[in-house]
Design a protein that fits this description.
By secondary structure, this protein is of the alpha+beta class. The protein has a single domain, classed as Endonuclease/exonuclease/phosphatase (Deoxyribonuclease I, Chain A, 4-Layer Sandwich). The strands form four sheets. Strands 1, 2, 3, 4, 14, 15 and 18 form a seven-stranded mixed beta sheet that branches. It has a seven-stranded mixed beta sheet with strand order 5-6-7-8-13-10-9. Helix 2 packs across helix 3. The protein is globular, with a radius of gyration of 22 Å.
Length: about 350
């Protein structure tokens, strides 16, 4: 009898720490994925989306659109399998409108995640925007804003640009979403900075980074201790001036001050990792960085975690089916189109993510 009581007491004591530990040590995945031209088959008024119509250059049919949705959902679902949990927050880019986002989150492979959507129609001439998926069980949405690209105020000298050129320029807005996770305040920025096509954007990408940085610093002033994540397709590497100077991305957490961000993909780029290939060279344009409050967190609050080889704080997710296995583009992301032909691929970018833990 005495032995039975001791065993029962021991079991009770063992049960309590497990429960408490489950409450205290929660971890969540936060990531970004460029979905590479997720267009529906209908024309959006005022947008240059004609190549993604049934009679357009890409002969974009409902059948192809359905395959694209399934492929994007497969990647998101496989990330869940690898991590054992759905992304709590997933930023996306190159999406045409809310319709394609609703279609994607309804795909059978990911419908159980119950993703909610934050999206604004932006000024991009092709009609592609940034958006955010979040799980309402984890992230409690408070507010959001679509931050437009402006030329002032800026440290950059725009004297070479005429007023007409500035007025005519259009690019994606930056999405900011603020809310809480387990009672802690978070702000997520989703960016798709100006393209490198035609050699453009040398000053435009730093300006986009500057806009995100200035708004992030305002939020830190308004909400002391807020945890900030800036993610997106930056069209620049972690070593480029837009990321190191204008977004003040640091390679090491020990170097991060309240005015800086920790960029875990800087070390990964130096180690030879790539999230896409541009002009034949591997790059990491798909970046997720965090402010000091999340990089070097106070005790018992969320903090970024090493997740790859217990060394790197970011991950670039790829599977063989997401990668060209032969031919001219062997070893690069298997994209939707190749040389103008639909090849039923995925994206020209691999998704990237971080893990935070309390």
């Amino acid at each position: 009898m005495k032995r039975t009581i001791v065993i029962i007491a021991a079991l009770v004591l063992l049960a309590i720490p497990r429960n408490a530990d489950a409450q205290k040590h929660r971890s969540y995945v936060i990531g970004f994925y460029n979905l590479e031209n997720l267009f529906d088959t209908y024309h959006d008024e005022g947008k240059n989306d004609y190549e993604y119509l049934p009679d357009g250059a890409n002969e974009w049919t409902e059948e192809k659109y359905a395959k694209k949705l399934r492929n994007m959902a497969r990647v998101i679902a496989d990330m869940k399998k690898d991590n054992g949990a759905w992304h709590a927050v997933l930023g996306v880019s190159e999406v045409e409108n809310r319709h394609v986002l609703e279609d994607l989150v309804s795909e059978p492979a990911i419908a159980e995640a119950n993703y909610q959507i934050v999206h604004y129609d932006g000024p991009d001439r092709r009609g592609v925007d940034c958006a955010l998926f979040y799980r309402p069980e984890v992230f409690k949405y408070i507010t959001s804003e679509s931050i437009p690209f402006t030329f002032e105020p800026s440290r950059i000298d725009w004297s070479a640009w005429t007023d007409e050129e500035k007025d005519a320029f259009r690019t994606r807005d930056i999405l900011m979403v603020r809310g809480t996770i387990d009672g802690e305040m978070f702000a997520f920025f989703v960016c798709h900075l100006p393209s490198r096509l035609g050699g453009k954007g040398a000053d435009l990408r730093p300006r986009g980074a500057e806009i995100a940085y200035m708004r992030a610093m305002e939020l830190q002033e308004e909400f002391p201790g807020i945890k900030i994540v800036v993610m997106g397709d930056m069209n620049d590497n972690p070593t480029d001036v837009s990321m190191t100077d204008y977004l003040r991305g640091k390679e090491f957490i020990s170097d991060v001050t309240d005015q800086d961000f920790f960029n875990p993909f800087l070390s990964m780029l130096k180690a030879g990792y790539s999230s896409l290939y541009y002009r034949g060279a591997g790059n990491i344009f798909d970046i997720v960085m965090v402010n000091k409050a999340l990089a070097d967190a106070e005790d018992d609050t969320f903090e970024i975690q090493p997740i790859l080889k217990k060394k790197f704080y970011g991950r670039i997710f790829s599977k063989p089916y997401m990668t060209n296995q032969s031919g001219q583009y062997k070893g690069t992301p298997f994209r939707t189109f190749s040389n103008g032909a639909f090849v039923n691929g995925y994206s020209d970018h691999y998704p990237t993510y971080i893990v935070i833990k309390k």
